[in-house]
Amino acid sequence: MWVFGYGSLIWHPGFPVAERRIARAAGWHRSFCMRSIHHRGTEAEPGLVLALDRAAGAICDGVAFRVAPGAEAQTLADLRDRELISSAYLEVTLPVTAEGAPIDCLAYVIDPAHVQYCGGLALEEQAQIIAQAVGGRGPNRDYLWNTAAHLAELGIADAELEWLADRVREIGRIREIGS
């Protein structure tokens, strides 16, 4: 069993991993296009979390994780508890290319018909939301910074995430000065 990670799964898979490979999903892009009302925000003040959003010609580089043998059933149950909390994600089998080889991975992609979908938000609006939102798993900014840092460690460039990480830090400094 393989799982494709493009956001928090990269730095916190939450299951036993037998193997990791840098992988690419064609036709999808990583995007803060899902309002988070549980993990990184609340219903009153939603945050934003990453999702795979379908886009012609797009690519998303991430990590394909091979689940440790014998842990597949528990991993699937745990991922469903974590990722399908509000049904904004769809569980799919996603073909990726990892080190030149095709692999079918379990992945969670955004349902563009779901009420939590918010594709197309301007980067500045995303930064303002991420800078202030807090949910059950902590500040939204930590989620962004952890993802950006781990992508950089893996040598995966993502210009939008890098811009957002810098802008959210800047917003934090401005708020500190203003207090």
From TrEMBL:
Species whose genome carries this gene: Gemmobacter aquatilis
Keywords annotated in UniProt: Lyase
Name used for this protein in its record: glutathione-specific gamma-glutamylcyclotransferase
Stored SUPFAM superfamilies: Gamma-glutamyl cyclotransferase-like
One Pfam family matching this protein: ChaC
Domain of life: Bacteria
GO molecular function: glutathione specific gamma-glutamylcyclotransferase activity
PANTHER family in the cross-refs: CATION TRANSPORT PROTEIN CHAC-RELATED (PTHR12192), GLUTATHIONE-SPECIFIC GAMMA-GLUTAMYLCYCLOTRANSFERASE 2 (PTHR12192:SF2)
Cellular component annotations (GO), alphabetically ordered: cytoplasm
The keyword Acetylation is annotated on this UniProt entry: no
Listed EC numbers: 4.3.2.7
GO process annotations (BP): glutathione catabolic process
CDD domains assigned to the protein according to its UniProt record, in alphabetical order: GGCT_like
